[in-house]
Amino acid sequence: MNKGIRNIFSEVPETYELINHILTFGLDVVWRKRAAKAAAMAGGNLWIDMCSGTGEMASNLSNIATNGTQIYAADFSLPMLNKARLKPDAKHIKFVLSDIKKLPFPNDTFNLITISFATRNINLNRDILIQSFKEFYRVLQPGGYFINLETSQPPHLLIRRLFHLYTKLFIERTGITISGSRAGYVYLSRTIPLFYNAEELADIMFQAGFKGVYFQKLFFGVAAIHQGIKD
Ligand SMILES: C[S@@+](CC[C@H](N)C(=O)[O-])C[C@H]1O[C@@H](n2cnc3c(N)ncnc32)[C@H](O)[C@@H]1O
Questions:
Q1: Domains with residue ranges and CATH for the chain
Q2: Which residue CA neighbors atom 25 of ligand 1 most closely?
Q3: For the chain, what is the HEC assignment?
Q4: pLDDT tens sequence across 92-141
Q5: Which residues pair with 149 in a beta bridge?
Q6: Bridge partners of 47?
Q7: Is the CB of 24 under 6 A from ligand 1?
Q8: What is the pLDDT of residue 4?
Q9: Is the CB of 71 within 6 Å of ligand 1?
Q10: How far is the CA of 51 from the centre of ligand 1 (A)?
Q11: pLDDT below 70 — which residues of the chain?
Q12: Of 6, 53, 194, 213, whose CB has the highest number of CB atoms within 10 Å?
């Protein structure tokens, strides 16, 4: 399954950002900026963006980091990372080709971990997601922040149904038409309605060891930013 996911993302780097901006009406850009702002509170000088893809979140971090902060970006898809390397901010970022389930870093390394729109992809099942979050916890320094931006489930039933309908009718077709990747956008449209709500994801973070977990829901709850701290 992991190999399948890596292949899916290796098919889409050219159109990946454009499709996200179209499908979210540009809100993905606003949400990443908001998550990066929350992340900046972590301070310290070693930050990493997990499953960084084409590097949009890592670029946001690079824009708000103070001098002397080293930013890393990890992903297991070389084509996605190669696209990220073309960004103007890339010269400030160290790219790491790695599966996030087994990171090539010692315990207690980073002051901040971010992940955006990729937690659904590492959620092969609940136990695997907890294990992946435990791996994040391992490489985070005590006092370090974990910031997670991901699609979520609107609490209001009618809005949730409309969101799922939009996902089914619009996301799949638009994604396939623009990218030419059927697998990528069938996968996206199928995983969004099945993902956890904000409370369930907070519970998963607790189970992985994070403390002080809280979240803010975005745009009627279609997405959420979660934050946790390593004690
Ligand atoms: C939907 S994209 C998100 C990219 C970016 N974070 C963003 O905000 O748009 C998911 C990314 O996660 C990566 N990914 C999925 N599973 C992974 C894993 N187990 N280890 C490393 N990267 C992974 C994929 O290669 C892809 O680049």
A1: 2-229 (3.40.50.150)
A2: 77
A3: CHHHHHHHHHCCCCCHHHHHHHHCCCHHHHHHHHHHHHHHCCCCCEEEEECCCCCHHHHHHHHHCCCCCEEEEEECCHHHHHHHCCCHHHHHEEEEECCCCCCCCCCCCEEEEEEECCHHHHCCCHHHHHHHHHHHHHHEEEEEEEEEEEECCCCCHHHHHHHHHHHHHHHHHHHHHHHCCHHHHHHHHHHHHHCCCHHHHHHHHHHCCCEEEEEEEEHHHCEEEEEEECC
A4: 999 999 999 999 999 999 999 999 999 999 999 999 999 999 999 999 99
A5: 116, 225
A6: 71, 112
A7: no
A8: 86
A9: no
A10: 4
A11: 1
A12: 53
Cα gap 220→90, rounded to integer Å: 33
Residues 6+ apart with CB under 8 A from 216: 224, 225
Q: Which residue has the tokens 């990747």?
A: 181
Both tokens assigned to 130: 């907890």
Quote the mean pLDDT of the chain. 95
Structure tokens at 204: 């998963």
Q: What pLDDT score was predicted for residue 11? A: 87
